Amino acid sequence: MSLRGLAAGLVALACFTPSLAAAQAAPSASQAASDVAADQPRTWFVVGATTTTLRGDCQEGCAAHGTGAYLHTGSVLGVAGFRVTPQADVGLEVSWVPASTAAGDDIRATFLLATGQFRPMASNGFFLRGGMGMTFIRNFTFDAADSVPPITSKALGLTYGAGWAFWREKRVGFELFGAQHMAALGDFVSGGVNNENVIANFWSLGAAIVIR
Amino acid sequence: MLRSSVFLSLASLALAVTARPASAQTALAAPVEQSPPPAEAMSRAARPLFAFDFAGQAPVAAPQSPLASDWKTERRACDGCPPRSVGHAFFDTTIVNVFYEIANLARGQVTAHISPKSWWANMEQGWVWDLDDFGVNQVGHPYQGNNYYNAGRANGLSFWESAGITAFGSGTWEYYGETNHASVNDLINTTLGGIALGEMFHRAAWLVRDTRLSGKPRLWKEIGAMAIDPITGLKRFMSGDASRISEKPPEMIPSALQAVGSLGVLSRGSNTNAFEGDNKGFLELNMLYGDPRVGRSRTPYDDFTVLLRFGGGGGLSEAKVRGRLLGQPFLDNRIQFNVTQAYDFAKNNVYQFGAQAFNGNVAYTMGSLSDGLALWAMGWGGLTALGAVDSIPLEGIDACVAPAPEDGAGQGVSEGPRCYDYGPGTDFGARAILTHSGRPIVDFLYETHHLYSLDGVRANHFLQQLRLDLLAPVKGPLGVGFSAEYFDRRTYFSQTLNPTQKFHYPQVRLFMTWRFS
Q1: CATH topology of domain A3-211
Q2: Could you give the domains of chain B?
Q3: I want to staple A74 with a disulfide (CB 3.0 to 4.6 A). Which of A4, A181, A192, B17 is the partner?
Q4: Are B436 and B372 in contact (CB under 8 A)?
Q5: Domain definitions of chain A by residue range
Q6: Helix (H) or strand (E) holding A174
C-alpha cells in the first residue's frame, strides 16, 4: 500500500469513528472531561498519517518565484508528550513527508518540532495544535522546471493546525485534523543564482490514533 | 508600532467617553454597601453593554464581596477572577482582529482591503518572510499578540490556554487580516512576544487595581489598569467587574515587588572604540515581580523582570522581559533552577536586535557574606525561537533605509530592502549581583546571543554584551549609578567567499536612581 493509500485509509477509518462511538456509550461530553481528570496519566501519544500537498517558493525578486509546482503525497507523524493543564498538552512531534518531483526525483522532509496542543472545550474533542523546531530537507526543489539544483539542508520548521478527537475508550481515541507545516530554508546560491528566502509549505489533512 | 499606538489611543478615547456616563450615574446608583445587587441582576442577559456601578463616595474597604457566594456558579476560578468562557475568548480575539483591520482601513492601508479572494490567495501561497520595519515586527506585532493573549486572560483562561488563543489570533490575522501573504516571522513574534508581553502587562495591571475599593478611586485605578492591559480593562468595564467588590485574585499578588527608575546620560562609542557624537539622555525602568531566587513554582510568570529604556539613541531603545515558567529549588534553597521565557528588543543609532527565546537557568544565593552583604549569581543557556539582527554591512541603521512605497504599492506595503535578518539560535550568559542590606551595589552581566540567519544571507551571528553597574545609595530611595558596557558582534558566513565581519561598541552611562519599593 502506498503512503497516500495508508493515509486515505486512516482518514476513512477515522471518519467512521463518530458513528461507532455514538453507537457505544455516548462518551462525548462527560467522558471528554473525565479524560483529563487529575488522576489520569499525564502522557499523550499521537500516531497518524496525512494526505499532503506541498510547494516550494522563493521570494524578493527571485527568478523562480511563483513557479513551484504543487506536489501531492502522504506523510506519517507521531507526537509524544504530556499534559500540563487539564486542557493543554506539550510534546515532541516527528513528521516525515516523502515526495517526488515532477521529474520523479525523491524529496524528503522530516520535521522535528516542539509542539503544544490546546483543547479549549472540555465538553468536546476540538483542539488547536502548534509547534516549532527543525526540519531536515533532502533533495528539495522549488521550481517547476527543475532548473535550480536540488537543496539538502536543515531548516526552521513550524506547524499549526486544528482538529477533532473522538474517544472510543477512556484512553484511546481517533482524531481528524488539518495542519500546515512550513520549512524555512533561507537563501541559497544555486546554479550561480541567489535564490532568496526559500520556503516550503505543506498543507495536510490527516487522521491519527490518540492515546492518553 | 503605529498600529499599537492607534489601538491604545482609541482604547483610551473609548474609556474617556464611557467613563463620563459612569460618573454621571453615580448620583443615581445606590452605594454598593447599602444595596448590593442581587446575583441574578448581574446575570449575563441583564447586563448592559457597559455595566458600571461606581458609587461616588469615598473609597471603602469591603470586608466581604456581596457576590462572594456566587463566584463559583459564575464560572470564576476565584472571587476576583473573571468568569471563564472559552467561546468569548475566541470571539474577543476575533474582535481584536476586526479592530486592527478597521484601524488599518482608517489609516488608508491598501493591505486592509481584504476579501475572500485575498484570503484564498494567502492560503494558496502559504508562509513567507515579510519586509516590514524592525519596530513593527519586533514591538508592534508582540504588542498586538498581547491583546490576543489578554482576550484569553480576560475571559478566565489560564496562561497556557491563553497562549493557544494568542496563536489563534495571530494565525487568523496573518491569513485573513491583511492582503499581504501570511508572514512566518509575524506569526512567531506575535505569538511568543504576545505571550511574554501579555502576561507581563496582565500582571502589571493587576498591581494597579484594588478590587476592594469603590467610588472614584476605584474608577481611576481601573482606568489606570486598562491603560496597561486594555483588553482586560475593557472586558471588566463591559461585564461590570470593574465595579464589583471582591478579593484580588491570589495568583495576581506577587511574593515581592521592586522597581527602580534611572535617569541619566549615555555615551555610545563607534566601531573604532572612540566615543564620538553627543551624549544621549535616557530614562530606564527596571521592575522585579516576585522573587526569582527561591521557590518551587508551577505558575508561569509568578516571577518576571522587565527592563524598559527610553531615549539613548532611540524612542524605545531597549526592552527586556524575562518570565519564569517553572521553578525548582535544590540544596535547601541555595540552588534554584528556573525555566524562563525571554523577550528582547534593542534598537539604537548603531545596532538593532530582537529575539523570542526560552532559557534554563541555575542561580546560587550566598547570603550574609558580611555586614549585610549578599551575593546572587546565575548562569543560563537556551534556545532562541526566532531572532532578528542587522544585515551586514553594519554601518548604522541609516545605511539601510527602506524606500517609500512606489507607485502602485500603496501605504502599508513594504517592498524592502529589509535591513535585518531573521533566524533561530541559542543564547547563554551569566549574572552576579552583590547587595548590601538588600540593595544592589554591583551588578555584573555577560550574555551571548547566537543567531543563524535563515532569512537573509546564511551566517552565524554572535552578539556579546559585557556590562558592569556600580550603584550607591544617596538618601532614602535616591541613588547614583555608573555603568560600563561593551558590545561585540561577529558574523561568520556560511559561504567562505564572504569574510568574517567584526564590530564592537563601548558604552558608558551615568545616572541617578529612584527606588519605588
Answers
A1: Porin (2.40.160)
A2: 2-251 (no CATH), 260-273+284-402+412-515 (2.40.160)
A3: A4
A4: yes
A5: 3-211
A6: strand A172-190
Using the beta-carbon criterion (under 8 Å), do B127 and A199 form an inter-chain contact? yes
CB contact burial B85-118 (16+ within 10 A = b; e otherwise): bbebbbebbbebbebbbebbeeeebbbbebeeeb
Residue A170 has which C-alpha cell?
477512556
Are B126 and A55 within 8 A, CB to CB? yes
Q: What count of Cα atoms within 13 Å lies in the side-chain half-sphere of residue B253?
A: 8
Tens of pLDDT along chain B (517 residues) come to: 444 443 443 344 333 333 333 333 333 333 333 333 444 444 444 444 444 455 444 444 444 445 555 777 878 888 899 999 999 999 999 999 999 999 999 988 888 999 999 999 999 888 998 888 899 999 999 999 999 999 999 999 999 889 989 999 999 999 999 999 999 999 999 999 999 999 999 999 999 999 999 899 999 999 999 999 999 999 999 999 999 999 999 999 999 999 999 999 999 887 776 777 778 899 999 999 998 888 888 899 999 999 999 998 888 999 999 999 999 999 888 899 999 999 999 988 778 899 999 999 999 988 766 778 889 999 999 999 999 998 875 444 455 666 665 555 566 666 667 788 899 999 999 999 999 888 899 999 999 999 998 887 778 999 999 999 999 999 989 999 999 999 999 988 876 667 788 888 899 999 999 998 6
The whole-angstrom distance between B466's CA and the closest CA on chain A is 29
- Report chain B residues touching chain A, CB-CB < 8 A: 86, 89-90, 125-129, 131, 158, 160-161, 163-165, 167-168, 171, 184, 187-188, 191, 385-386, 416, 423-424, 453-458, 495
B46: which 3 cell numbers?
Answer: 441583564
- Chain B residue numbers with beta carbons less than 8 Å from the beta carbon of A84 are 160
Residue B474 in 3-state DSSP? strand
Contacts of A132 in chain B (CB under 8 A): 188, 385
